[in-house]
Amino acid sequence: MTLSRVYVIPHGDEIISMPNEDARVMNGKIKEVTKGDDADTIAIISPHFLRVSSGVAVINTNYVSGEYKIKRRNIKGHYRVDKDLNSRILGSSRYFVETVFVTTEGRLSNFPLDFGSLIPLSFFDVDTVSVMGQWRAYHPKILRKLGALLYQAVSSSRSLISVVFSADQAHAHSRSGRYGYDPRAREYDEMIINSIKDNDFRELANVKNEFIEGAKPDSFWLMLMFSGFVDRGNLRPVFHYYYVQRYFGMMLATAV
């Protein structure tokens, strides 16, 4: 069939536990943009999922499942894997790397899900997914190309697919935070927001690796793929909401 919807969704616990007004607004905004999504499959890329040095890990087990506790709530997920979509993704580039767990078939073919996947997936009513990890290598041109190839794979699928880029932004906004303070955190987040609003990712594609190391985002590599995806599909990114949760930035965006 074709592409349904495209999202950049944060995965901080706070969008579920909602300890403050910003978190409550973010939760509401995510529910608003995901409402009525009737995709057969959610393809999701998470920076906290399996990471391999040779490219983007594509989990090709029969199932993926997991559980994550957020205060008094347990988020659980058990999903079938869209192997047809995976085949299209894996066939598009050697930088999409097939990974399995225990076995490739049967009930034991079940890979554990991370919180960066489980939290965004909790906003969808879907039972089939394609889950990918982040390739954390400084190769902006290749990552943009992989985003374009992902668009082509999704667009040629037999199913209706929505794509989620699961990403929190810079993690160095506060001296009391886990990674300390760095002024590049604010600069990075402003750059991401402006890239979305202007549909212009040239500054992001040219940013130096040292800058990224200072700002400490987990989104840089996925946002490069997002930019290639949007460009190949002739899509327009739409900014919805952003705030800083203690020490890290969370942003919601879509593409139409």
How would you characterize the overall build of this protein?
This protein is an alpha/beta fold and 256 residues long. Helix content is 35%, strand content 27%. The chain has 9 helices and 11 strands. It has a 9-stranded mixed sheet, with helices on both faces. Strands 3-6 form a two-stranded parallel ribbon. A hairpin with a 2-residue loop joins strand 4 (63-70) and strand 5 (73-81). Helix 5 (140-155) packs across helix 9. The protein is globular.
Essential attributes:
256 residues; alpha/beta; 9-stranded mixed beta sheet; two-stranded parallel sheet; 11 strands; 27% strand
Helix-strand pattern: EHHEEEEHEEHEHEHHHHEE
Structural classification: alpha/beta
Proportion of strand residues: 25-35%
Envelope shape:
globular
- Would you tell me the overall average pLDDT? 96
Low-pLDDT residue intervals, each spanning 5 or more residues: none
Q: Total number of β-strand segments?
A: 11
Outline:
By secondary structure, this protein is of the alpha/beta class. Helices cover 35% and strands 27% of the residues. The chain has helices at residues 14-17, 21-34, 83-90, 115-121, 140-155, 184-198, 202-206, 209-215, 220-232; strands at residues 3-9, 41-46, 56-59, 63-70, 73-81, 96-99, 110-112, 128-133, 161-166, 237-245, 248-255.
